[in-house]
Each structure stands twice: as structure tokens, then as C-alpha cells.
Amino acid sequence: MKRIILITGGSHSGKSAYAEKLALCLSPTPVYLATARIWDEEFRERVARHQQRRGAEWTNIEEEKELSRHRLEGKVVLIDCVTLWCTNFFFDLNADVDRALATAKEEFNRFTEQEATFIFVTNEIGMGGVSENKLQQKFTDMQGWMNQYIASRADEVILMVAGIPMQVKNDEPTNLLHQRVIKSNDE
User: Fold this and answer.
1) Which EC numbers characterise this protein's activity in its record (predicted)?
2) Residues with a known catalytic role
3) Taking the CB of residue 97, how many other CB atoms lie within 10 A of it?
4) Closest CA to 103 of 146, 132, 57
């Protein structure tokens, strides 16, 4: 059964850590789909450290834009993160917000046609105020619209605040699962 979960929040709010625990509650062998573009050797080393920290139970896939290239039916897939993924479209399309947003939406739709559990991690970059930089303003708009698009299609939306998951949109069956994840944080 297809399921889409969106985990959002500010920088260092605990989004990724919570998403990883949730994925491991849903599957003993989840998939980690990383969307970051490797821009230098230092960042490459950081990615390698993150992969090692996650452990052998994870299948790690690096994919900058074309998520739908990967057939992941029946899997639990953590996509980290939407912000970096959108950044790749935004800059590759010369900051054309309309084209970047349309392309990201099309790719999201293709990817989520699969019967899988998708856990998308994203940032609420517009919550911290508006930048004076016009390019940042354009990206913040695009990111906010993409977050809204994913949230409208998600079965569940979780807002992370200071490491605490707050359910914004949910259905009853997964409510018990999140209580298990929260309890595991306390142990």
C-alpha cells in the first residue's frame, strides 16, 4: 500500500533523526535516498560519515533529481531532503521558479506512483523570516510551494519542534506507530 509521510520543521529541529527512527520502526531494512549534490571533498566525507552512522540495515542511494529512476516497490524509503532536491532543480533551471517547481512536481508524481512507503524530510525555510537576497526569496517561494504540494498529497504531516514531533495531518492507524517512535526516543 502506498503511503506518503512528510516531516518538516526548522533547521536542526530533529527531522532527520525522527525520520530515521520512523523508517526503522516500519522496516528492518529501509532505503535512504539522499538528494544532496556533492560539491567538494569535505562534503563527500560528511556523506560517508552519515552513511556509516546509519548502519548496514540501510540501503543508501545518492540521487540528485531523478528519484523515479529507482524502483522501490514494497520498500520504506526515506528521502532526505526535499530542500536540497529542489535546490538542484532551481539552480539547474537558472532560478526559473515556475519551471523548477513544475519539474519537481512532475518528478514527485512519477516517483510516488510506486507502491511504497515514502518518508519525505523537508525544511520550513520561510519560517525564519524573509531574506533581502532576491535569489533566496525566489527559492524560499519555490520551496514553500513544493512543501504545500507534497503536504496536500501526504497521508501524514509531522512538524518537528525542538526534537518533538507534532502531528499536523494524520490518520488513525499510524497514530499508534508514532507513539512507539516517541517512546523509543525516551528510552
Assistant:
1) 2.7.1.156, 2.7.7.62
2) 50
3) 17
4) 146
